[in-house]
Specification:
342 residues, alpha/beta, Rossmann fold, 2 domains, six-stranded parallel sheet, 11 helices, globular
Length: 342
């Protein structure tokens, strides 16, 4: 019997609750993907702790996105073939050597680009691109505030906002300010500075857009920073049902109040049933990567089966950029894992 391995969250809690499990390799009904890269993200961590409006039932395999090669297909599959390089927005299930997907979920990916970079486009760069261009509809010369500007999504904002010609302010701890300076953003240390007061002094006429992936009381403290026509974009996990209702209420109130400022949750105007915008944006991002107009910052690389160690590193709070899991053949070609360096 052929098998493959995954990393499962077996109970609520920290990375120590994750275990390697063995699974039987069965002929696929649709598509079997040999995983080359997976990303480690805060939604994975939050799902493990159960801090989400809709909790996943335990045990489950975390992992929001993968890139890999199709190595088997079912008899009825017509749009994918063995050998295709693909991405999948898995939402869960990505910490695995093999992933089974329906053919409509496969994202075409260039075989000549690095999977360790490509996998970050599937989730992080997609969210950033869509919040900028489909939700906020940014214009060159506008001023943006990035709340959480140093992680995987934060560094994607730095790159794509610079590419779009935006003036940037970014919130990050002092030790991470160098990456903000590198992309032309004005850093604000959220530990020691009142971000709203700093921006109010620097931009007395207000800012055009705030990208908020953190939530909490940032909206209450900062909504007054928006000028007329300004947009506050929320894209983070609301963490609970009450948090989700709060986000939706703020959005409704902003529509009803005639002050010209909008609170827009990510996904507004996008339909889960119309996937064309998603595939269009993934194709655009792949082309930007090919042209090196974007270049995902990778803070650490781990073997796929060291997902628990990778989660511990992410939760430690020191990472700048993305944390990725790689297949053994890619680990040999990439920088050694954070675990082996420590």
């Amino acid at each position: 019997m052929e098998t493959y391995k995954s990393v499962s969250a077996t109970q609520r809690g920290g990375p120590e609750t994750m275990q390697i499990i063995e699974n039987e390799l069965v002929p696929p009904v649709e598509c079997q993907v040999r995983v080359l890269a997976s990303c480690v993200t805060m939604p994975d961590v939050q799902a493990r702790y159960g801090t989400s409006p809709f909790k996943l039932k335990l045990p489950f395999v975390p992992g929001y996105a993968v890139v890999g090669d199709v190595d088997d297909v079912g008899a009825g599959v017509t749009s994918a073939a063995v050998g295709d390089r693909v991405g999948v927005l898995t939402v869960w299930g990505g910490y695995t050597e093999v992933y089974y997907a329906t053919e409509d979920k496969l994202i075409p990916m260039p075989a000549d680009l690095n999977p360790a970079e490509l996998v970050n486009l599937v989730l992080n760069y997609l969210v950033v691109y869509q919040t900028m261009h489909r939700s906020a509809k940014v214009k060159p010369g506008e001023t943006a505030v990035i709340i959480g500007a140093s992680g995987g999504i934060g560094t994607a904002y730095l790159q794509l906002c610079k590419l779009a010609g935006l003036k940037m302010y970014g919130l990050a701890s002092k030790s991470k300010h160098a990456i903000l300076h590198a992309y032309g953003a004005e850093p604000i240390d959220y530990h020691t500075q009142d971000f709203a007061e700093v921006i109010r002094q620097a931009e007395p006429d207000g800012v055009d857009v705030v990208f908020d992936g953190v939530g909490g009381d940032y909206y209450r403290r900062g909504k007054g920073l928006l000028r007329r026509g300004g947009r506050w974009i929320s894209y983070g996990n609301p963490l609970s049902v009450s948090g989700l209702l709060t986000v939706l209420w703020r959005s409704l109130v902003s529509v009803l109040l005639p002050d010209g400022r909008k609170h827009i949750p990510y996904g507004t105007g996008l339909s889960r049933f119309n996937r064309d915008p998603y595939f269009e944006d993934w194709a655009t991002l792949c082309e930007l990567l090919r042209e090196r107009k974007i270049q995902p910052v990778i803070g650490a690389r781990f073997p796929i089966l060291e997902a628990a160690q990778a989660n511990a590193f992410l939760e430690g709070g020191s990472v700048i950029g993305n944390v990725v899991l790689l297949a053994p053949e890619l680990m040999k070609a990439e920088i050694p894992s954070q675990e082996s360096e420590s």
